[in-house]
Specification:
This protein has 406 residues and is α+β, with helices and mostly antiparallel strands. It is 41% helix and 14% strand. Among the domains are: 121 residues, Butyryl-CoA Dehydrogenase, subunit A, domain 2, CATH 2.40.110.10; 127 residues, Butyryl-CoA Dehydrogenase, subunit A, domain 3 (Up-down Bundle), CATH 1.20.140. It has a four-stranded mixed sheet with strand order 1-4-5-8. Strand 9 and strand 10 form a beta hairpin. The longest helix is centred in the last third of the chain and has 24 residues. The radius of gyration is 22 Å and the shape is globular. 37% of the residues are buried. The N terminus is likely disordered.
Amino acid sequence: MTIANAPKELPEHAEFRKEIAAWLRANTPADPGFLLPQTFMEVGSDQVLDFLREWQFKVWSAGYLGMAWPKQYGGQGAAPIYQSIVDQEMKRLRVPICFNVIGLGWAGPLILDIGSDIEKEKYLKGILNADDIWAQGFSEPNHGSDLGSIQTRAERDGDDYVINGSKIWTTMGNYAKYMILLARTDPQAERRYNGLSFFLAPMKTAGITTQPIKKLTGEYGFTETFFTDARIPANCIMGDEGQGWRIAMKTLQYERGAEAGAAGGISILSIAMNDLLNMAQDIERDGQPLLKDPITRDNLVKFLIEEQALYLAEQRGAIPALTRDYPNSIALSGKLRGTEFFRRMRQYALTLQGANGALYVGDSEATDGGFWQRAYLNNFSTTIGGGTSQVQANIIGEHVLGLPKD
């Protein structure tokens, strides 16, 4: 998408864009013959994992992942704009995702920001080269997005913490080597938030087991994780006991896109309005393409305007003079606006398919092989992960508009 008044790239940036585009065209792997994930939340088989692991290692080895991270930890020490250009070209050319997102986008930036030198040395390179897969242990079966009510316990016992409890929606938990884990170390704390602590927990530990969760799509990717007297070293704690809530909220800033620092790569296949327009052109009704129907055209124009607004809001967020009244409004609302837009857009794609909208991947008559049905169902995980849309609305109300909690 081109904006008439967008700032022009410097010559060296334009040249780098050509370089990365050429590399991606030459190195993107061929269709493997099996269904690849649309998001990092559908890595549900060893076959898919091995394919994506090899791809991420290839991108990193070429110097195009973690470009802004320090060289001593596996990065390139480059200006962040270079990673942004790489990500834009990966999105445009629709290459496979970089799957280790919880490490690349959440745990890694957190460790870079507040971790010790020992933690940086231990964890960061393995995140970039895909050796070490990370999972997130925040949500619990009976508490969902209410992290303040977490019941998983971590009790200090000598040089260890003993963990008991369970977590749910732990993406790639069955493959993960480490988990960012929020657990209760002080059940008697006067304020429930003060009794939580944050751990960089090893998953290959006796007493930690996982159970895959089958999704609406028929695919896997999520797990439930169980801790039964699982012992992890006491030095796995990040910060001090009782600081878990503050660190978890910082982590969620990365997850929601409100704070920079991610290593880069694309975590979700880009599905834009151009794709929907192409589908509307291909589907015929009453002997002519749907794109010629005036009501359909009107609805599509509304979606196009909203897509453009999302793009412009992202640009505006980087200009302090345009966000002075509500400095955090764009950053804190981006996840809500984006995920809900794509949910409605994909739902409309199914509406346009008529009766074919009920078909799915594997049905010979499914439009585009069931691509849109799968995309629509997968989108629900993005409206839930990182805090549901309802929670996001509360965050905007409280932290942007200043509304009271009650």
